[in-house]
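Lecture notes, unit on protein representations.

Consider one protein chain, 885 amino acids long.
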Amino acid sequence: MQTLRIPSHPWRAFLLAALLGIVALLFAALFARTLARARVPSGIEAEPRPAPLQVGANVALLKRSDAEIAGQLDQARAAGLLTLRQPVAWADIEPASGAYDWTALDRVVDAASARGLHVVLTLTGAPAWARKPLDQDAPGALPADPASYARFVSAVVGRYRGRIEAVQLWDSPNLATGPNREFVQPRQYVALLKAAYAAAKAADSGVLVLGGGLAPTTENTPSNQDDVRYLETLYRAGAAPYFDALAVKPYGFWSGPDDRIVDANVLNFSRVVLLRDIMTRYGDADKSAWAVEWGWNVLPKDWPGRPAVSGSDSDAKQTPREAEAVLRARAEWPWLASMLVTHLRPDAPPDDPVWGFAMLDDRLQPRPLLQAIESAAQAPISPPSPPNPLTLYLTLAGLALGIVLSGGGALALARRLPWVSIWVALDAMIGRLGDTGGMVAFAASALLFALLPWPVNVVFLLPLALLTAARLDLALAAIVVAAPFFLKTIRLGPLQVSLVEVLTLITFAAWVARRLTLITFAAWVARRLTQNGLAALKAQLPLNLQDGAVLLLLLLGGLSPLWALMAGVANREFRVVVLEPILFYVVLRDARLDRRQTLRLADAAVLAGALLTLYGFATYTGAGGTAAEGVRRLKSVYGSPNNLALMLGRILPVLLALALWGESRWRRLAYGLAAAPIVAGLFLTFSTGAWLLGVPAALLVLGVGRGRRALLAMLGAVGVAALALIPFARTERVARLLNLGEAETWERRQLLWQSALNMIRDHPWLGVGLDNFLYEFRDAYYLPGAEVEQNLSHPHNILLDFWSRLGILALVALVGSLAAFFRGAWRLFHALSGDMRWLILGFAASMVDFLAHGLIDNSFFLVDLAFFYMLTVGIVRMLEREGEA
């Protein structure tokens, strides 16, 4: 009999254990997924159902003949579909203010009432006269005045008092509609609910008011917000008192009703449980939910129309799935009061995939689906069975075994490997590449990672990590080059990240590994606190005003999602605009770069500026330029020319300082060559802030820092730039620029600033949260006359921007940071010589551009600007620390 042989070499045993552990973990994952699919939710779902589940359907009868209306209603009643939801376009009923046309709706309500059917009216779609000027081409936009919608709701409910069961106030408010609806407006929707709810109850106290009608989506952008997060936003904005039941849409998408995975990132029938959890969390457990749309789509294989966003089943799957969904809801969800199938028979073009939901065919004959739902609604139900305990035990056993074997085996194997020797060999190999070879290797790895598709690009993360660990100086320079290209995203599995984000996280991890390994750092802190107290700790980890200001900004940014209306976007801006640039600052301030490596950071900034403008020129007639006000403005990789001007305005002073007065002949030549496209690109942005404020102020600082002759030269440069405008003097853009007192432009800007002050008045201490300005502004704070600027994401002023986002303490952080920077730059400018002296002058002038341009535009809260700010203050802090050492 053959026996199992244990490997004789210990490392082989450890490797075998690790592999067996990985296999066990895989089996545990499979069992866990089976367990999740079989899970029966507990808690409120186990309570008895207070009333029978209403099963009905969506109808589209307003444009049908009397005979067609009668035929569909008779079919619905015969099948037991006693609740019907009819969408009603406000624009069709009230095309002009106060002028109602009830003809079509009267026929439907009368016919339904005569048959004893329950009617739900979804009231949506503002007419042109009720929309904001900016939304004239967006029929789905919310009305300018909630009171106008409330009057319409009152008229509808009053006219059909006692003949309709419920009204749904708007539909899919978490999705933006129309080309100019660039973001959803939760606070404005809450105002709509508040006004319309009161109007509906005043007209008929017995009518049920449905809120929401939330569309299921996992997207989280200003235009579309996932239904789970949006519902929480509504509750945070005070929506709870203004609806009697929540309208939800539990479509099945690509899995059946037995899929009990409850995950905000998963679209399935069980997603509605997440919405119910939020209702319960905010004290609304007594309210019911109505599934106003749900189902599985069926389209033929040769379907010629638009694809269904909800996926497509076969007939053989759709019918049992919808029947099982009704049975599951009846058994497990007592809080779900009604299920209205999408759709009895839609009124839609032939290529609309909504036809895949229809329960009646083209001849008004019932499909098998109709009978299956009728049977499921009447069938006896049994309580849900709990999951098989064996599945749970196998999951836990596999998980435990996997952790022990894989973790223990890998750890034992790792302990036997000569890590120090391996790292010394790799470090020596990378060191032999030298500066030039290291830069080439780093650039090649970064570009291959950024440009190759997933998952091939992951291969290049390892060399990128090794190069970063060995050459932090090159990694810091690479971050500076990559920052302006943050809009170019890279796919990493389910994630979309930018190169600068990946480089920053790798660099910070390498810094931690090299400088402050977590275990030794914790022991060191404990020892210092125990032996010498806080004074010794401060001596080992010196913090000055700049560090304190940066830490305060980090704290405020990290907490801001707690009170932000749109917590999701606040979290994202915290990650990419606050946290990651500050991680870059932490590494830079501690980097101890030599003179050559420090100057390389300036080289990286100039290279980034040259790449930006060269790309812009190459695409100037296409995506890299935009026509506006009689000129073609350069925007390069950005969405706006002003963003390009903000970045180039920060780079130009550093370039000029070292190009004009630097010691290295080669650097002066290279910077001189880079100056041509950068200056031309900055000119072609036609940016008011750059031309009038940022660049002139920076040039004056350079001139003052160098001396009288340089100051005269800089004044001459400003004059030459003014003369360069003459060929464009007849264009609208330059004419507006020269007419500094143009009333309309400055009136709009003053209205914007007044709106920001009103916002600050209401949120003085904490602000409205990171990246929440545009939501609060359009929802509640924009003033009449500023309609064309409703989509602004910042108040176009540095002080108002910091204060409105993060409160009064953010201004303290900003002022403290600037004070520390200019104090340190002044000392270093007088203490250093040669290239380092001019480097400091260039960054000081760049900071002045930041302040001057920031008076009328963005300043910090963009990824590239935040990284450049941290580069500017970080270099000064690093050089200060070298002087302190």
